Amino acid sequence: MNETVLSLKQRFALSRFMRGEKPANGALTLNQRRIFILPTRQGGGFIVLIILLLLIALTYNNNLIYLLAFMLASVFFITILHTYQSLAGLVVKPLQTQAAFTGEKAGFSFSIQNPSDQERFDIQLKLETETLLDIPPHHHEKVLLFKSTKKRGKLQAGTLTVSSCYPLGLFRAWSPLRFKMEALVYPAPATVFSVFPESEGFEGENGQSKKGGDDFYGLQSYQPGDPIRQIHWKSYAKGQGLFSKHYGGNAVADLWLDYNQTPGHDVEQRLSHLCRWIIEAEKIGLHYGLILPNKKIPCNHGPSHQHACLEALALF
User: Fold this and answer.
1) How high is the pLDDT of residue 252?
2) 126 lies in a domain?
3) 76 assigned to some structural domain
4) Which of 68, 162, 189, 312 has the fewest CB atoms within 10 Å, i.e. the most exposed one?
5) pLDDT digits (tens, 9 = 90+) for 73-83
6) The pTM is what?
7) Is residue 176 located within the same domain as residue 279?
8) Sheet holding 139-148, edge to edge
9) Tally of domains in the chain
10) Which residues of the chain have pLDDT under 50?
11) Is the peptide bond before 224 cis (omega within 30 degrees of 0)?
12) Is 304 inside any structural domain?
């Protein structure tokens, strides 16, 4: 993969150390350009210890203390190389995203591959949540990280930070990476369920609408295909289950969820009610469609149809 040459200003820009470079489409290899390293708090304490030992050795002209200080200094500098090697050569690749409702956490999955002959220990991946893992030689791991959502639409993954303090915790090597990843954020479903809008039954051969007979026989368990108008919503709202009012004749009806007929004082409230309707309609197996000012989705049912409707709400 050919990388663009950075100017001196771009190379030392503070955002590059914290947020990473421009978002990439595919996999990124952690190399000298992308890995940064600094002492940790323990590393700072280790430096102070070496300085104190040198001062004591100078004061008392003690060769054993000199030897100890130089040994600790050699460990300190060798640790820099080992900490860098814990990340060098790893390949990070973006995978799928998981949609979420507003207020929940959207998921972003990544693959991290170790193409070398050595095992990598204590590799931390952090987005908003974080995970710690060891990667055997010539092996790859899949990780799923999450990010909070505040509004509907498309949520950028942001900066994925891969880091390690292996082996002694004296240094922290990190690599901030950005990918062109977007997760869909659906509107938050309304907390209060409102009754589905009325839907007309299918027309018969003579062009007349089949709405069922006038004689009420009682309640029966809901069956997919029962008319929407005959569902007993009071029982459903009380958590007693889903029942249909049984008349002399029943007919299958399409449920059209129309934005213009949805209750709400603003756009977000209407989308919230539509979202709740879509979830409930799919849960009980209704045949439903969606009508928005800029889009119309024909009646259907199933997970893919539900996703298409929720996606339309997210991008409205």
Assistant:
1) 47
2) yes
3) yes
4) 68
5) 999 999 999 99
6) 0.79
7) no
8) 28-29, 91-98, 105-114, 139-148
9) 2
10) 1, 200-219, 248-252
11) no
12) yes
